[in-house]
Amino acid sequence: MNFNKKLEKAIKKNNSLLCVGLDSDVDRLRESFGESRQFLFNKSIIEATKTHVCSYKLNTAFYEAIGHSGIKALKDTCDYLREKHPEIPLIIDAKRGDIGNTNDGYVQFVFTYLGGDAVTINPYFGEEAIRPFLNKKDKGIIVLCKTSNAGAGEIQDLVISNGMRDLVPTLRRDAYNASLDFSASPRNDMKLYQYIAYQVSHEWNKNKNCLLVVGAMYPNELKQVRKIVGQDMTLLIPGIGAQGGDLEATLKAGLNSRGRGLIINSSRNIVFAKNPREEAKKLRVEINKFC
User: Fold this and answer.
1) What is the DSSP string of 116-144?
2) Orotidine 5'-phosphate decarboxylase domain: from which residue to which, for each copy (predicted)?
3) What is the pLDDT of residue 184?
4) Which entry of 9, 72, 95, 227 is annotated as an active-site residue?
5) What is the pTM of this model?
């Protein structure tokens, strides 16, 4: 089963667009978990929240930071999910992207070794370089577009002068122009994140396995991305919870016409809550008010 179909089944089963990020920062875990505390902590969160999610996301940095034992915890968590809850999609948040055979190694680690269903990637190297990811037809390839950090605009908001004329193929210019609101930009300039959204949705998505990352801190930009990519592409939304993203504004800007099309990620606010099950349930209910 490919990622999109698996995701849709999980959404329907749990009536949920919520993704829980298993960001198990080892410095915040109880010593009572012992040497295997990352894995055991993750296991407890999974069992507490499994009926309220559409997916889980593991940011590899929290595991890589502590070396061998962290990589083992990452692997053990992925194995546990695939064995006990194979119906729930597993997103590896690795933000990979390089050239040639280097990407082949990343692909093998994420999909063969860890058994992930999807991965986050960096578009900076272009389509040719990241083709080893895009060619994995059954996997979700989630491309960074407008990230949730405060400094995202330094690069992602750079203006490409006369970008529509210079970069968008001639036969597609009318469609591109119709998808955007250029009222504040009389020269039809566009920003880099908009161009990434266009390229991924119109040029890279030949296998219909691409998604985009758009942070909840930027609902106006999310609205623009939704216009560019259309109704079918799913967007992964970090930034709800500890980062302060506005849930209502995010959902109104990003949901497609079917009340779907978003994966709303929350990490710290759930996994380190006093009652992760209740916190996940509460957020799922809040999301569903707008779906």
Assistant:
1) -SEEEE-GGGHHHHTHHHHT-TTSEEEEE
2) 17-283
3) 41
4) 95
5) 0.91
What are the distances in angstroms from CA 272 to CA 14, 56, 278? 22, 15, 12
Q: What is the pLDDT of residues 194-231, one digit of tens each?
A: 999 999 999 999 999 999 999 999 999 999 999 999 99
Of 79, 87, 73, the closest CA to residue 11 belongs to: 87
What tokens appear for 180 in the block? 């955007």
Give me the phi and psi of 93, to 5 degrees please: -90, 90
User: How would you classify residue 53: left for phi > 0, otherwise alpha for psi between -120 and 50, otherwise beta?
Assistant: beta
The rounded distance, in Å, linking the Cα atoms of 165 and 174 is 10
| Bridge partner list, 143 | 121, 212
**Distance between CA atoms of 54 and 16, rounded to whole angstroms?**
6
Q: Are 225 and 146 in contact (CB under 8 A)?
A: yes
Are the CB atoms for 80 and 39 separated by under 8 Å?
Answer: yes
Alpha carbon 55 to its chain's center: 10
| 6 classed as catalytic | no
Pairing mode, strands 159-160 and 190-191: antiparallel
Mean pLDDT score of the chain: 90
The superfamily (CATH) of domain 3-288 is Aldolase class I (3.20.20.70)
The amino acid present at 49, given as its one-letter code, is T
Answer yes or no: are the C-beta atoms of 242 and 268 closer than 8 Å. yes
Q: How many helices (H) and strands (E) does the chain have?
A: 15, 10
